Amino acid sequence: MKRTEKTVYFDNASTTFPKAPGIGLAMADYLDNKGCNVGRGNYKWGYEVAEAVYKTRKKLCDLFQFKEGSDPSKNVIFTASVTEGLNLVIKGMLQPGDHVLVSGMEHNAVMRPLIFLESQGISFSVMPCDELGNLELEKIEPLIQTTTKAIIMTHSSNVCGTVLPIHEVSEICKKNHLNFVVDAAQTAGAFSINMSQTAIDALCFTGHKGLLGPQGIGGVIIKDALAEEMTGIIQGGTGSRSESFEMPDFLPDKFESGTLNLPGIYGLSKALDYLKEKGPENILKKELELTQQIISGVQDINNIKLIGIPNITGRSAVISLMSSEKDNAQVAFELDKDYGIMTRVGLHCAPLAHKTLGTYPKGTIRLSLGHFNTPEEVEYCLHALKSILK
Ligand SMILES: Cc1ncc(COP(=O)(O)O)c(C=O)c1O
């Protein structure tokens, strides 16, 4: 059964692979044949690139059903990643004395900026989740203080796949006049996120995971009201209002200084076309079928424990396992070395989530499935785990 030439990629929660077909060509086409900047030069190529960037913003508004004024595309702020988007919102929104709520399943992309801001008089409380990662909704409102400004929450755990109830939390935010900031790193592309129905003030996304685009491009879709009260965290050239030493006060320029990642935007645009063609609901369905196959299969394997929800209701295709006999890292090492199966082991940049799940500090072996994985690959992995753990 040992075959080193075979490779199986089960690290899609880190970054998806393969990406959507054609994104490399779209990026190369921009670099080789257009290559100029946007919003800087008034010439034909510049207009063409500006049109492509505008269309990408529009595709994102369509995907997330975002509507705001006559041109919601201006509310799409491009960043390098969801980490940069979350920093932009967290640091731009919060003032000394403010308090926010986060879930017990957050990634360090939320936790580290908040811990950093503690020295500036900004505080946070953790909304508890149970040992499967489910948010305990009834415990949220008692945590709200007079200084609470927002709830910042991941849509799905990057450790165990538990999906958090963004709609219910958005209702709590509405009732208590709080901003709602969602980290959609693990759900954008596969899960339906409808900003017309769910009151999200800032949706932070990354291009290289479920959106099947390249690394280095992400963003925030932000409502006007929140954008108006925020300050930018990076100041510089925008190509607009060059006579002023101050940043423009209109979107997206208020938060987009410096040259955009244009190859990344061309790649993301192509990926968004692919997602539209496939339909996020079909992508999720397939990913969850594979997830079910793993969940059922590991029940027959000795010395391994599934962490998180033991079925596919309320979860994404991220599966965490814990080995009771062998060291987790040894299992992951053997999966890679002897079977060519790539997984991720450890704390996955989310120590808070592991504390919630009771897997801190050891961490877990994470298998994260993607749109291009197959039932044969899952079967092969289950056989490999059986052999390694026998
Ligand atoms: C829930 C969550 N938030 C944030 C991030 C950070 O993503 P990026 O590295 O694209 O900024 C990740 C990546 O693993 C994640 O899973």
UniProtKB/TrEMBL annotation:
The protein's Enzyme Commission number: 2.8.1.7
Enzyme class name: transferase
Cofactor(s), by name: pyridoxal 5'-phosphate
Upper taxonomic lineage: Bacteria, Bacillati, Bacillota, Clostridia, Eubacteriales
Catalytic activity: (sulfur carrier)-H + L-cysteine = (sulfur carrier)-SH + L-alanine
Organism in which the protein naturally occurs: Acetobacterium bakii
The UniProt record lists the keyword ATP-binding: no
Name of the protein: cysteine desulfurase
Keyword Flavoprotein tagged: no
UniProt xrefs under InterPro entries: Aminotrans_V_dom, Aminotrans_V_PyrdxlP_BS, Cys_dSase-rel_unknwn_funct, Cysteine_dSase, PyrdxlP-dep_Trfase, PyrdxlP-dep_Trfase_major, PyrdxlP-dep_Trfase_small
